[in-house]
């Protein structure tokens, strides 16, 4: 089968011919990929930022946002059948450890992360995952239309879901970045809360999209974005800031846009937050980290998606143009999410 494999850090991946995966364990599921999302994390992987954290053996197949059709199952799988349409939680979990028992999939002691750890991902024609990772979809769903909800979607949703108790009517939420994750976060906020939604982005086209999908106000990141947000909030800042960028200075903007007693949710990464501890204590602002989401988050998000309340805006590329998709994402030419279609 064809697969997008990374051979060396700081170099483009290549399209290789490799053997198709087969079930090994009783709960394994082989999925024929119908859509694989292209994520900024893939760029960070290529840059080597995850090398020390996951330490994968190269070469391996990229791709952690996947949806498709069940192709084969292990002998112990009872919840799925060949032909089922599925979206895949990006991190299969064991179901047995304390974190799994508490529903905290991302903190599973025995989890693996296809496309990020020592397991091939889904930028390929087939992927091996487990029965626990599969969320069944309506058979009429096109996997390419929803694939990026598997990571970008639940990452955005997870942060919003956590923040809902902080956003009663009359509050203000700021979304930094209206791209692949942010445009999903905006829709989740609009669907689940009554908060005023202020969106900050440096791209006018992204702000135009934000205005169509739920933003109350949009702010161009032209160097005066913090002051603009302060003006919209009576000088105090937002009750909650969702930072889907968190690099190249946006991380300090996000903190400075957060009101006293407010919460700064960090979802993007790559930057560095430098804050005097007195600044945290004296204003009682909170910094909240977010990593992907739970199986339940993904199942809830798919209810919103299939009800038309969250729509993924995509640019589709054939698998053989994976490098073009990565370059377009890096250059800011992708509106919404890039999807590879084998």
From TrEMBL:
Its cofactor is Zn(2+). InterPro entries: ADH-like_C, ADH-like_N, ADH_Zn_CS, ER, GroES-like_sf, NAD(P)-bd_dom_sf. The keyword NAD does not apply. It catalyses: a primary alcohol + NAD(+) = an aldehyde + NADH + H(+); a secondary alcohol + NAD(+) = a ketone + NADH + H(+). The keyword Transmembrane does not apply. Gene3D superfamilies: Medium-chain alcohol dehydrogenases, catalytic domain, NAD(P)-binding Rossmann-like Domain. Keywords: Metal-binding, Oxidoreductase, Zinc. Residues 8-340 form the Enoyl reductase (ER) domain. Its EC number is 1.1.1.1. Coiled coil: none annotated. PROSITE patterns: ADH_ZINC (PS00059). One of its GO terms (molecular function) is alcohol dehydrogenase (NAD+) activity. It holds the Pfam family ADH_zinc_N. It comes from the Bacteria. Belongs to the zinc-containing alcohol dehydrogenase family. PANTHER family: ALCOHOL DEHYDROGENASE 1-RELATED (PTHR42940), VACUOLAR PROTEIN SORTING-ASSOCIATED PROTEIN 11 (PTHR42940:SF8). This is alcohol dehydrogenase.
């Amino acid at each position: 089968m064809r697969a997008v494999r990374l051979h060396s850090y700081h170099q483009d991946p290549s399209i290789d011919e490799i053997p198709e995966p087969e079930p090994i364990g009783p709960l394994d599921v082989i999925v024929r990929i119908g859509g694989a999302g292209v994520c900024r994390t893939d760029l960070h992987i290529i840059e080597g930022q995850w090398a020390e954290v996951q330490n994968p053996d190269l070469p391996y197949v990229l791709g952690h946002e996947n949806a498709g059709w069940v192709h084969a199952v292990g002998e112990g799988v009872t919840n799925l059948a060949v032909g089922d349409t599925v979206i895949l939680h990006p991190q299969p979990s064991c179901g047995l450890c304390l974190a799994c028992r508490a529903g905290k999939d991302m903190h599973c002691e025995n989890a693996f992360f296809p496309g990020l750890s020592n397991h091939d991902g889904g930028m390929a024609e087939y992927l091996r995952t487990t029965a626990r990772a599969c969320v069944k979809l309506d058979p009429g769903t096109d996997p390419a239309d929803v694939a990026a909800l598997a990571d970008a979607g639940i990452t955005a949703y997870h942060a919003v879901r956590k923040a809902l108790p902080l956003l009663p009517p009359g509050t203000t939420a700021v979304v930094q970045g209206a791209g692949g994750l942010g445009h999903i976060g905006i829709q989740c906020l609009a669907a689940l809360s009554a908060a005023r939604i202020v969106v900050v982005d440096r791209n006018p086209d992204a702000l135009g999209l934000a205005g169509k999908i739920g933003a109350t106000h949009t702010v161009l990141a032209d160097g005066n974005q913090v002051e603009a947000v302060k003006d919209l909030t009576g000088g105090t800042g937002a009750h909650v800031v969702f930072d889907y960028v968190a690099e190249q200075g946006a991380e300090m903007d996000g903190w400075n846009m957060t009101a006293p007693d407010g919460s700064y949710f960090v979802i993007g990464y790559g930057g560095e937050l430098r804050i005097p501890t007195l600044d945290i204590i004296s204003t009682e602002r909170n910094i909240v980290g977010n990593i992907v989401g739970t199986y339940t988050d993904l199942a809830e998000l798919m209810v919103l998606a299939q009800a038309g309340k969250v729509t993924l805006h995509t640019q589709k590329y054939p698998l053989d143009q994976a490098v073009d998709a990565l370059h377009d994402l890096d250059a800011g030419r992708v509106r919404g999410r890039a999807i590879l279609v084998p």
